[in-house]
Amino acid sequence: MNVEYTGRQFEITPAIRKEVETGLNKLSKFLGETFKSKVILTAEKSRRIAEITIKRRNNPIVGLAESLDMSAAISQALGHIEKQALKHNGRKRDTKRVTKAKWKREAPDVELTMAVGATSTTAAAKLATRVHIRPNELRVAPWLVERLPRLPSNRCTT
Q1: 21-71: pLDDT as tens digits
Q2: Domain boundaries 2-90, corresponding CATH code
């Protein structure tokens, strides 16, 4: 974590430097350990402005806050960056998620075979691959199970 400080009409004290670094350490949970940050602290008449820019791989995150006190402005800017980081990580997580595979219109041609001890549900699954229907949409009548061809079993009868 690299931090570059700039003070415009403002002297950066060790206490303010420590406050910024503790806030950035808390943000490292969301952002990871490798990021560059620039902190610009400005004093204009009675207002204090804190601008914190964090540069990641693909996009910068900027927190800008204005207050009468510099420590309040820094904490507001860090809070703004935290909200942006959580929002960005949520979007990244949503795009990584994969939807369920849609039903393919073309099913492979499978020869219809019956196993020993087949029931209407197993016969429905095998028939569905042949007819290009989803298995849960097909209800098999008992007479259909009896009409499906049976193959001789491979068991030895000695």
Answers
A1: 999 999 988 888 888 999 999 999 999 999 999 998 878 999 999 999 999
A2: 3.30.160.100
Within 10 Å of residue 132's Cβ, how many Cβ atoms? 11
For residue 80, the tally of other CB atoms under 10 A from its CB is 17
| Nearest-5° Cα angle at 149, 147 to 150 | 120
Which residue bears the tokens 């601008």? Answer: 51
Contact 36, 94 (CB under 8 A): no
Residue 141's contacts (CB-CB under 8 Å, 6 or more residues apart) are 120
What would the mean pLDDT of 13-17 be, rounded to a whole number? 95
Numbered ranges of CATH 3.30.160.100 in the chain: 2-90
